[in-house]
Amino acid sequence: MCSLLPTEVVEYFSSDSVSTVDQGNTSFQELYTTEFLNTIKCSGLPPHRLALKVGVPIMLMRNIDQAAGLCNGTRLRITFLGKHFIKAIALNGTSQGQEVLIHRMDMNPSESKLPFTLIRRQFPIILSFAMTINKSQGQSMTNVGLYLPRPVFTHGQLYVALSRVRSMDGIKILILDSEKKPTNKTMNVVYREIFQNIV
Prior knowledge:
single chain, alpha+beta, 2 domains, five-stranded antiparallel beta sheet, three-stranded antiparallel beta sheet
């Protein structure tokens, strides 16, 4: 399906299968239908159904071209939705402002408890209206909205979140207390053990 209208939603469906290594076992083919494979959601894999529009922000889920800065975690904005490829402009990294083409590729889940190896052929992207603090590490942004429904839970993570923005004027923070009410205080988690050997 192809779309030239920016308001039109285009749906892309993956092609899922069991790895050829596992296909020697006929029981896998009999047990796991294509419909079942389509329902599997794994960390590090795009969904079976991607609903996209021109202009939406996306994030790469695989390294496509590391030399050009197109790595896992790179954010882009879609400019064209074709049948076999997607055009997008990089929003961060060394390729910022560059238009790139994204094609479908075969992907396996990085970690899976499945008794077989799933192969999902899909665009290596996911919608990215927001991101976790860990995914934002190493990126600089003009404006950042930080949502903290509970205190951050690891050493230095609050610093990472606050240091993503170039100027303090570009950051807005929503902090909720234990009763889910807005507050202006949060805990900064620091492991005191790291200071024990400092002279």
